[in-house]
Amino acid sequence: MPTLKIDNKDYELDNLSPEAKAQLQMLQVTDQEIARLNVQLAIAQTARSAYSQALKASLPAASDTIQLPQ
What we know:
The protein has one helix and two strands; from the N terminus they run E-E-H. The chain is mainly alpha-helical.
């Protein structure tokens, strides 16, 4: 019989109340959403890095910049 361990105590899944089963299901859904969001964050961080590199490549070289008098 499958069990769930919380705070070093085992609980048989079949013996959980309907409310506890619902909370467990929501916990699992939440964990899946966190994993999905972590993937999205990794994609966004990769894109940001690529945009940063593209910006640096499109900037004029230091010797090409015009120095304005102060």
